[in-house]
């Protein structure tokens, strides 16, 4: 058996092994490069600008139909009479049969010539108050009985307020200066001042044209801008105002006040509004259809007493026993 022995490869065998290692290493490097290129090719592109992790989603609102509601039209009465002036007609009733009336105007040019009726307005008896008292330009009339009536007028050239009274149905008149303090009247020299039974008071408007007293503490005033105020403490405080387009006069009623409205679009004549003592509108109810062409400028008088409502329009006296629903004669 031949002896076992290892043959020496020599210098050429060692060189071949080096090239084999280099070749394998190059193959591995190329392979790694290909893998890196493949992976980097799948990397998403870099975002431009900052990226917030709490971005709110954009919400597009859903459009819903808009409900359009048109308010019901409110018809406001319209009148060509835009200013109230001191009335030129004074009318005060005692009941459905007895009443006094007087035309009035500037002092001292307007004589005091009141008239009275005892038959519901069918006939009127004239009297003369200026002759015995020197009073002109009557401001108010109060009726106490068939033949007893008192009045506030303006005295003489000075036109100072004066209280006069008759006990025999105008057969004679006499002045009672001490009783003037208990009366209501607008100051004839300053229409922003009102005399009350408790003293003088300022009115809440630029010009008061008429006052309608219930008693010594309750009254209503009509102002030149056709606003109405009431007081329950002799003018110390006043209610908020209510404006009546076309208002020309007012008077007391059993539990409030009447306001006479002229040339209202809703009434071809005189419309009557009623107020409570606290100055809340009860109604603008009844219409007296009549010719009012000669009644502008304060030419309407009205009064209610003992269930009888009287209205003096121009040369006509109308009366209602049902609050203005029907009129006679």
Q: How would you describe this structure to a colleague?
A:
The chain has one domain (89-320): TolB, C-terminal domain (Neuraminidase). The model is unreliable at 1-14 and 34-76 (pLDDT under 50). The protein has two helices and 22 strands. The protein is mainly beta and 329 residues long. The strands form six sheets. Strands 1-2-3-4 form a four-stranded antiparallel sheet, with no helix packed on it. Strands 5-6-7-8 form a four-stranded antiparallel sheet. It is globular and about 45 Å long. The longest helix has 32 residues, at 10-41.
Concise overview:
This protein is mainly β. The chain contains two helices and 22 strands.
Describe the protein's topology.
Layout: H1 10-41, E1 89-93, E2 99-103, E3 115-117, E4 125-126, H2 130-133, E5 135-143, E6 149-155, E7 160-166, E8 174-175, E9 185-186, E10 193-196, E11 199-202, E12 208-213, E13 219-223, E14 227-231, E15 242-243, E16 247-253, E17 256-262, E18 269-276, E19 281-289, E20 300-305, E21 308-313, E22 316-320
Antiparallel strand pairs: 1-2, 2-3, 3-4, 5-6, 6-7, 7-8, 9-10, 10-11, 12-13, 13-14, 14-15, 16-17, 17-18, 18-19, 20-21, 21-22
What class do helices, strands and sheet pairing give?
mainly beta
Strand content: 35-45%
Query: How do the strands of the widest beta sheet line up side by side?
Result: 1-2-3-4
CATH overall fold name: Neuraminidase
Mean pLDDT: 81
Under the CATH scheme, the architecture is 6 Propeller
Radius of gyration: 50 Å
Q: Helices and strands, in N-to-C order?
A: HEEEEHEEEEEEEEEEEEEEEEEE
């Amino acid at each position: 058996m031949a002896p076992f022995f290892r043959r020496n490869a020599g210098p050429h065998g060692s060189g071949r092994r080096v090239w084999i290692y280099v070749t394998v290493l190059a193959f591995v490097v190329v392979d790694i490069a290909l893998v890196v290129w493949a992976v980097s090719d799948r990397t998403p592109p870099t975002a431009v600008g900052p990226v917030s992790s709490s971005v709110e989603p954009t919400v597009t609102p859903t459009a819903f139909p808009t409900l359009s509601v048109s308010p019901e039209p409110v018809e406001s009465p319209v009148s060509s009479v835009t200013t109230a002036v001191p009335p030129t007609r004074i009318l005060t009733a005692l009941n459905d049969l007895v009443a006094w009336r007087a035309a009035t105007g500037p002092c001292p040019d307007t004589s005091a010539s009141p008239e009275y009726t005892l038959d519901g307005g069918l006939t009127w008896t004239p009297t003369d108050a200026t002759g015995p008292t020197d009073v002109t330009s009557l401001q108010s009339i109060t009726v106490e009985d068939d033949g007893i009536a008192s009045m506030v007028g303006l005295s003489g050239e000075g036109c100072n307020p004066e209280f006069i009274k008759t006990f025999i149905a105008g057969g004679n008149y006499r002045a009672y200066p001490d009783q003037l303090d208990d009366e209501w009247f607008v100051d004839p020299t300053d229409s922003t001042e009102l005399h009350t039974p408790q003293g003088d008071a300022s009115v809440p408007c630029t010009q008061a044209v008429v006052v309608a007293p219930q008693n010594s503490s309750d009254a209503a005033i009509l102002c030149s801008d056709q606003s109405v105020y009431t007081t329950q403490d002799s003018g110390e405080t006043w209610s908020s105002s209510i404006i009546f387009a076309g208002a020309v006069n007012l008077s007391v009623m059993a539990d409030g006040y009447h306001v006479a409205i002229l040339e209202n679009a809703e009434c071809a004549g005189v419309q009557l509004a009623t107020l409570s003592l606290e100055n809340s509108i009860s109604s603008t109810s009844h219409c007296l259809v009549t010719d009012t062409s000669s009644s502008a400028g304060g030419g309407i008088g009205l009064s209610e007493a003992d269930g009888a409502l009287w209205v003096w329009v121009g040369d006509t006296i109308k009366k209602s026993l049902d609050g203005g629903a029907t009129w006679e004669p």
